[in-house]
Structure formats: structure tokens, C-alpha cells
Design a protein that fits this description.
Blueprint (H helix, E strand, L loop, with lengths): L8 E9 L9 H14 L2 E2 L5 E5 L10 H11 L7 E4 L2 H4 L3 H13 L4 E4 L8 H34 L11 E2 L8 E2 L1 H15 L5 H10 L12 H9 L6 E4 L16 E4 L8 H14 L8 H4 L7 E3 L6 E6 L7 E6 H4 L9 E2 H18 L4 E4 L6 H28 L5 H24 L10 H16 L6 H9 L2 E7 L4 E9 L9
Parallel strand pairs: 1-2, 1-3, 1-4, 4-5, 10-15, 14-16
Antiparallel strand pairs: 6-7, 8-9, 11-12, 12-13, 15-16
Helix pairs in contact: 6-9, 12-15, 13-14
Length: 508
């Protein structure tokens, strides 16, 4: 039995210094202590998996790019590391809910442990309890600090001070300075308001116009309908400041009575009159309307139709009428956002029969193109073989990480040789285990016949009134990967797939 300490592990380092730097170790100090810990515990670390974030709060994980890169790497098939090393658990997160979710996902699904080198935990449930107490204390500190910061920023807002990232048209020349106008960007803002108010151009048409002219947002990206909605509603362009509009945790818009709007100290780009005219039109045309729940309006083709131009999904839209049944139509999501030039607008009365005919044609021809998928089984030998093969594949990555650690100067030549020897021993043991296992070859099956049987059963379901749109949608997704719609040529391509040993749906 191989001892745990004899197994070479690969480690990632997560280093974070928050915006409040009191009593915190510097990034260099954290890095040095984490590397020392890794070496003393037989762990390989490469520079590629040292994630450092400076001046970033730990309250929200989605606001930390390096953290998200680390999580994405952990979830990848490559499995580049077995453990994440931290100076303190507070570096991982100061939101207990997020901390539990990410740690649980890492440990249970990715088989990656999270270790605080300054807060060692004992094994067992008591150790887990201590970890939760530490997380709760970190979150309490963060909430208290956040409250102090929020109160300070609210006071600044009431005085008309600007304290957000400047929007398109402005820049802040230095820290805590009043925003100044960028003339070339301000011209774009003026153009937007002029065409929206005076030329009555729709936001959709305006989005396409701006992107066609090569204009970019403040982040250097193409315009979208939502970015124009933000600009149109931003009182900052008329010289005011707006604060407390959204809830930080959820980004939901608060009730207008909670907003803080005060005259700002920065110069205006447009007149208040023009801004008010824009609000009048926006509020008139874009008042939120009551919509049916998604489970009610979902169409049996939802999630399957794709644009032939960009490959994005075709969004389903429903038209509600008082005396007539609801009518669905589909349009490219990218086209609606101004990111795709291909107009794939199609009514359900056109696309629905086309899909049914494609299924009928396959049955009439007696042949169909499809891809084959393997069904997940609980067959113990197969699962064991797959597990060993995965471990062997990961050893290749471990060897690479060991070499990178030596090249990067993290490990000495002696440490590199010792790690390589341990990896070699582990590989030999795994290969011996694999050699003992036998795999019984599966008998060949008539997959085409099964594919056609599945299509026939699904077609019966789609043509029956006994099934809901949701049930029809689920049935079609069991054999169809995607349906690409080419409006210009009035053509669809259906990508069928067959799961090995499929469970045949029952006929109605």
C-alpha cells in the first residue's frame, strides 16, 4: 500500500491581497511561505499555477479573474493540480456561502483539496466544524468592513462626489480626481442621444449603426442593446451623479425611491433637456411587461435551433393575443444583440413542419447520418480501468509540472530527480494494476436500426397532442444535438446522435 507521503502531488498557489491591506502579508511573503510548505510536503508547483490577485476584495468570487482561472483549471480534464494552497482561508473567500460551494465542488467533483498553511485542521467532523467557524469569522469581518465602506461612499455621493468607474466619454486623470471629458468618446455619446431622441432610431437599429461605424464601448467592445440602455438612462451625462441604483450582491436594480441622485462636480456631455426627452421615450417604450413563466412559454424547439451565420442559439419569442393562440417565432440571439449580421427570423409555422419533415425523410430513406455516444454505466471493471487510465494521464502532467518547477527555479535538481523517481514508481504500480484488469469486448449492434427506431418514436411524440411542449422538447433533445437554420436557402441541417444501448421512449 503506497503511503500518502510517498505520493507526489501537484499544487496551485492562490495569493490575494485585498483592498484593505491592514495586517496582511505581502504577495511575495505569501508566495515564499506557500512554496516552502509545498516543498516540505512533496508537492510540485509550477509558475503556471501560481495565481496572484492584488487589491481585490474576497466578497464575490465572480469579481476575481485569477480565482476564476484557477477554478476553470481545476475543472478541466487535464487536472493540473491536486491541492490549492492558501496562506489563510480568508484568501479563498470571505463569503461563507460561496466558500462552501466552491470547496465542495473542488473536493467532491474535481478531487482538489483546499489547504490553509497557517490554519491547520484536524481530520474528521471536528476539523470541518473549525473550518466553518473560521469562514464565519472572516465573513463577519468582511460584512462589518463593507458596511463602513458603504456608509463612507454614500456620504460622498450625497456631496456629489464621483466614485465609480467613469462611463464612455469620461476619464479620471488621477486618483480621486473629478472626471474629465474625452472629446472623441463624448461625440459618440452625443450621437447616441441625438439619433435616439431626434431621429427616433430604435435601440436595435442604433446598435447595428454604431457597430457598422466601428464605434466601441468604454471597454473596447462592440455595442449591445443593453449597453445603449445603460447610456440612455445614465444621468451622469447630464451632469448628475447616481448612487445606490443596484444591489451589489445580485446586481438587481433597486426601487427608484432608494436611488441617490445629486448634482455632480463633473462637466455634462448633453443637456438636461435632451436627457429628459430620452427618458420620456425610454419609459414609454420599454416599460416592463408581464410575461408568462418560462416553463409555460417554452417551445418544443427551444434550445435546439442554431444560426447558420454565427452558430448562436435562436431565441424563442412568443406573441400573446387575447382571442387567438400564442404564436412563436425565432431569431438569432447574436443578431438581436447586434453581434451577427445573419437574419434568421423564422415563424414556428415554417420551422416546425421543416423539422418534422426532416425526421420523416430519414425514416422514408431508411438511412441517417448520426454520431454515437457512450452511455455511462456502473460497470465496476470499466470504471476502475477508466480511473487508472486517468491517473496515468495525470502522471504525464505531473512530470511536466516537475520539470517546469525545476526550469522556473522553484525546485533544485535534487528535488526534481526525487520527484521524478516517485512519479516513476507510481506509474509502475498503476500499470501493474491495469494489466490485471480485463475488458470484455462488446458485441456489435445494429446502431442504424436503433437510430431509426428512436426517430420514429420521437416523431410520434411530436405529432401527438398528449404531450406538453416541455415533454416534446426533452424527447427531441434525446436524439438531436442541434438544428442549424439557413434562412437564405430555406434549409435546415439536423445533427442526430444515438446513445449506445438507448432506452427507447414509449409510443403514445
Amino acid at each position: 500500500m503506497k503511503k500518502e507521503e510517498d505520493t507526489v502531488k501537484t499544487a496551485a498557489l492562490y495569493i490575494r491581497v485585498s483592498t484593505d491591506k491592514q495586517e496582511e502579508l505581502s504577495p511575495d511573503s505569501q508566495r515564499r511561505l506557500l512554496l516552502d510548505y509545498a516543498k516540505s510536503h512533496n508537492m510540485i508547483v509550477s509558475n503556471q499555477h501560481i495565481y496572484t490577485e492584488n487589491g481585490i476584495s474576497g466578497r464575490k468570487a465572480d469579481k476575481r479573474p485569477k480565482f476564476q482561472q484557477m477554478i476553470a483549471a481545476a475543472k478541466s480534464d487535464e487536472h493540473p493540480f491536486d491541492v490549492i494552497l492558501l496562506w489563510k482561508f480568508s484568501r479563498f473567500a470571505r463569503n461563507q456561502e460561496e466558500s462552501i460551494v466552491y470547496k465542495s465542488m473542488l473536493r467532491n467533483k474535481c478531487h482538489v483539496d483546499v489547504v490553509s498553511i497557517s490554519e491547520p485542521l484536524i481530520e474528521g467532523p471536528f476539523g470541518g466544524l473549525i473550518e466553518r467557524i473560521i469562514e464565519w469569522m472572516d465573513e463577519f469581518y468582511s460584512i462589518r468592513l463593507s458596511g463602513d465602506v458603504t456608509r463612507g461612499m454614500t456620504e460622498n455621493a450625497l456631496r456629489g462626489a464621483y466614485q465609480c468607474r467613469p462611463p464612455l466619454g469620461y476619464h479620471i486623470p488621477h486618483h480621486k480626481a473629478t472626471p474629465e471629458i474625452i472629446p472623441e468618446e463624448a461625440a459618440i455619446v452625443q450621437l447616441i442621444f441625438d439619433k435616439y431622441v431626434n431621429e427616433k432610431m430604435s435601440l436595435f437599429a442604433l446598435t447595428k449603426y454604431l457597430n457598422a461605424q466601428g464605434y466601441k464601448t468604454s471597454r473596447g467592445k462592440p455595442f449591445e442593446k443593453r449597453s445603449l440602455e445603460y447610456i440612455i438612462q445614465n444621468p451622469g451625462y447630464a451632469g448628475d451623479i447616481r448612487w445606490n441604483r443596484t444591489i451589489n450582491e445580485t446586481n438587481e436594480i433597486r426601487d427608484r425611491s432608494e436611488w441617490i441622485i445629486r448634482p455632480g462636480h463633473h462637466p455634462a456631455i448633453i443637456s438636461k433637456e435632451l436627457f429628459e426627452q430620452a427618458q420620456e421615450r425610454f419609459n414609454k417604450e420599454y416599460t416592463p411587461r408581464n410575461a408568462k413563466p418560462s416553463e409555460v412559454t417554452k417551445h418544443w424547439l427551444s434550445g435546439l435551433l442554431k444560426c447558420s451565420g454565427c452558430g448562436r442559439s435562436l431565441s424563442s419569442c412568443v406573441v400573446h393575443r387575447k382571442s387567438l393562440p400564442d404564436t412563436f417565432y425565432f431569431q438569432c440571439y447574436g443578431y438581436l444583440k447586434g453581434k451577427c449580421s445573419t437574419n434568421c427570423y423564422v415563424n414556428e409555422s415554417v420551422i416546425g413542419p421543416a423539422v418534422l419533415n426532416a425526421l420523416k425523410d430519414a425514416l422514408n430513406n431508411g438511412s441517417v447520418s448520426y454520431s454515437l455516444r457512450q452511455r455511462q454505466t456502473d460497470h465496476a471493471p470499466d470504471a476502475e480501468i477508466k480511473n487508472i487510465e486517468k491517473k496515468l494521464s495525470r502522471l504525464d502532467s505531473k512530470e511536466l509540472r516537475a520539470k517546469e518547477a525545476y526550469i522556473d527555479g522553484i525546485d533544485t535538481i535534487e528535488e526534481y530527480r526525487a520527484n521524478k523517481e516517485r512519479i516513476s514508481q507510481e506509474r509502475t504500480e498503476l500499470e501493474e494494476q491495469l494489466a490485471k484488469l480485463t475488458q470484455v469486448p462488446e458485441e456489435p449492434e445494429d446502431n442504424t436500426r436503433k437510430m431509426l427506431q428512436s426517430i420514429s418514436s420521437i416523431l410520434d411524440i411530436l405529432q401527438s397532442d398528449s404531450f406538453t411542449p416541455q415533454e416534446k422538447n426533452a424527447a427531441l433533445k434525446s436524439i438531436v444535438e442541434k438544428i442549424t437554420y439557413d434562412r437564405a436557402n430555406s434549409h435546415i441541417d439536423v445533427d442526430f446522435y444515438l446513445t449506445e444501448n438507448p432506452e427507447m421512449p414509449a409510443n403514445p
